[in-house]
Design brief:
mainly alpha; cell projection
């Protein structure tokens, strides 16, 4: 092999690794758990490099040659960022149905109030939602769900070209990604509502009963009498239903990840 051929081979190998690394790292930066600001940057880079080393040989045939101009190279890198972030964001959106369900559950069992936001946890955070948010990375990395983003990345190199800017099918691919984002958001709220459905139903019955009690005995402070019982019953329901809640979330989220994210 001549020196020029060896140099060209090395250049193409480095270019292929760079393209794969950009798409992989942009997805890793927004995955549950890994995308948190508390995770060290070196850990994120290490995981991205490890995944790139595994994925790059699998998708080498689908990668284009190195662009001839710096402008095209920059455009191609931006494309990888968009695709990687979109895949990671889809995974994040579908999985975050669990914390959203936790918000609804927390409101129903009386551990938070839309009128009295917590100064410690923030106006949009609730106790149950925060617990579910901490559980989410553990459930994600301890189950088969973590394999889906890797499968999606490998498939994306074969189904979403790395140089679709300026091509006729580029607009169609962007429309596809937008549709996937819309569907994933809709599924997120649907799954959250399904998970919190028992608490929503019992909460409606409970509030109707309190309204009748307040009507029958207006001189009694029904809220202060019923609030401790509401919290006690709600925590009992949460303890009894926690296993089915997590099982339902894991099964439905895994199914939708394979359907929407794995392309």
């Amino acid at each position: 092999m001549s020196a020029d051929a060896g140099q060209a081979l090395l250049t193409n190998t480095v270019f292929d690794f760079l393209i794969v690394f950009v798409r992989v790292s942009s997805m890793v930066m927004v995955l549950p758990g890994l995308g948190a600001s508390t995770v060290p940057a070196m850990a994120k880079i290490g995981i991205s490099l490890a995944l790139t080393t595994i994925i790059a040989p699998l998708v080498a045939a689908a990668l284009p040659p190195m662009p001839q101009t710096p402008a095209l190279l920059v455009a191609m890198i931006v494309e990888q960022l968009v695709v990687g972030i979109t895949i990671g964001w889809l995974v994040n959106t579908i999985l975050y149905a669990l914390p959203i369900a936790g918000q609804a559950i927390s409101y129903q069992i009386g551990l938070s109030s839309v009128l009295l936001p917590s100064t410690d946890m923030g106006a949009e955070s609730t106790l149950v939602s925060s617990i579910f948010s901490m559980l989410l990375p553990v459930l994600f990395f301890s189950s088969t769900l973590m394999i889906v983003p890797i499968i999606a990345l490998v498939h994306s190199f074969h189904r979403i070209p790395t140089d679709f800017i300026g091509q006729s099918h580029g607009v169609g691919l962007m429309v596809l990604l937008i549709k996937l984002v819309i569907k994933s958001v809709a599924f997120e709220f649907l799954l959250a509502t399904q998970i919190a459905a028992p608490f929503l139903a019992i909460g409606m019955i409970w509030q109707a009963g309190l309204a009748l009690m307040a009507k029958a005995s207006p001189q009694m402070q029904i809220f202060f009498v019923a609030a401790p019982l509401q919290i006690l019953v709600g925590l009992g329901m949460l303890a009894a239903l926690l296993g089915p809640i997590l099982a339902t979330w894991q099964a439905d989220a895994g199914r939708m990840l394979l359907h929407y994210v794995a392309l």
